[in-house]
């Protein structure tokens, strides 16, 4: 059955305009790279990373709050971001020996690294203590292991992670009784430990719960000081939303999309999707947190931090990678089925997915071809080049301006935050997509391969 060009606009979800990226995509570079690599690749824009870090620092400065930004390395494996952290003094949040070695190896000092994650391996704790990293302790047995690893020349630097009272079923953090025990053990350890404060891990992106818990931890810092502990910083973790699309487009999409808009009768509910539009995102979310009144009364959080002499730490990942990269696939085939097209690209959904949300990446992919739009759209889903029915980059029947054909390029925008490599796999012996670092110098666009080879 032939694909029928559509005259009725289907649900679409265009990413925010990005004129700088559009200039790069309009040139020869994407096609040359696709030819050179013979498969999909990722473009990285480190200047965007720097700008996002600066935005967070500016929000702290505006509020008069002493603070530090740590890049959550799990959001993207590329070395380019760690190189930028080493140059501009941004901290790094790691949760494995491999991540810690990468950060140290690219020039980030141990004092600029925070080690998070539950039940950390002994090897990770050992290196972290030796290098002077800040360790977010998640459990009493972990605290005992940290204390046992201290040396006579360097105390263990640590935060005690608080179990969020609003999320009592979370597997992260110490409850009230455990926290009291941990504080006493830190006090008993004397000079072997520098208990520098508290941290927490909250699911979701709401700002008020972060302000509420941060306010509680400021009070805990004051109580811990009475016990002779340093307790002068609080980490609010990550959870800073990214605003991928406009409010009107997001509302329309949620209202209009339905099972008929997806391949093979696939269906999603609004709850399945990442919140691709957020009215408060990135550094603006930090501003809201700092201006909020913990538990709804008293002084704003920023004032409480200043008054108590407490530093605010944060570990954004996705938010520092906003608009800092995109993913490019080459169209490998196109078939017609049931009135719409099935487009196959030269990679897999393991290089671009929302698997952990039981969903898919929603911002519209952009087709780069050599033909002018015909005035009518052609709807097609996007599949990967594997033998799995479930290998779908986009279940949704996206409206393309022309019929895709082999050799065209398909660009997914704003994929640097988790989408590029959190689920990647060399399934079918397909090479992992290389990462290409792009910048401008003397008015021309330059590129190089990221210094961390795909593994």
Weakly predicted, low-confidence segments? none
Query: What is the CATH topology descriptor of the largest domain?
Result: TIM Barrel
First CA to last CA: what distance? Answer: 42 Å
**Biggest sheet, in brief?**
9 strands, mixed
Helix content: 25-40%
Question: Keywords for this structure?
Answer:
455 residues, alpha/beta, Lyase, Ornithine Decarboxylase, Chain A, domain 1, TIM Barrel, 2 domains, nine-stranded mixed β-sheet, 12 helices, 29% helix, elongated
Can you characterise this structure?
- This protein is of the alpha/beta class.
- The chain has 2 domains: 19-45 and 323-449, Lyase, Ornithine Decarboxylase, Chain A, domain 1 (Beta Barrel), CATH 2.40.37; 47-243 and 278-321, Alanine racemase (TIM Barrel).
- The protein is 29% helix and 21% strand.
- The protein has helices spanning 19-26, 29-37, 46-63, 79-88, 97-105, 122-131, 140-148, 176-189, 208-226, 247-256, 282-291, 301-308, and strands at 41-44, 67-72, 91-94, 113-115, 134-137, 156-162, 193-200, 233-235, 311-314, 325-337, 340-345, 366-368, 378-383, 392-400, 409-412, 435-441, 444-449.
- The strands form 2 sheets. Strands 1, 10, 11, 12, 13, 14, 15, 16 and 17 form a 9-stranded mixed β-sheet that branches.
- Helix 3 (46-63) packs parallel to helix 11, helix 7 runs parallel beside helix 8 and helix 9 packs parallel to helix 12.
- The longest helix is centred in the middle third of the chain and has 19 residues, at 208-226.
